[in-house]
Specification:
Length: 140
Amino acid sequence: MMKFKGKVSWWFYAIIIGVAVLLIPLIIFSACVEPNAAALITTLAVFLAVEFFCLSIVLHNYVELQNEELIIVFGFIKKKIPYGDILSISPTRDASSSLAASLDRIEIKYKNKSAVMISVVDKEGFFNKMKEYHPDMIII
């Protein structure tokens, strides 16, 4: 079993801080100027949900190579892909929605024309270990 830490770019931290910078003054302003309990609770709930979700990604972000499958953990999301289903892995900078908090990504294509993108700190080490676990896989 081998674990690779997920990579988190500066822009992801900027989202976390940006949401706080935008919503905290809004929450304080609405509480002081026009105290509407429903609006205040809704804004606070949205703020806490976004911050909690983003923080869970920063703290719980890794890829684990187990004997039979690859496990991707990204915040509250956990995805398992059997090695036999993986067709290829390749570096990418695709900005599409993915299980990555960085644009320095790895695209994993697997059966049924599915794909997932991840980002790890040690990309070269990941490629090398993946080749050990699944020698038939194509690395582009």
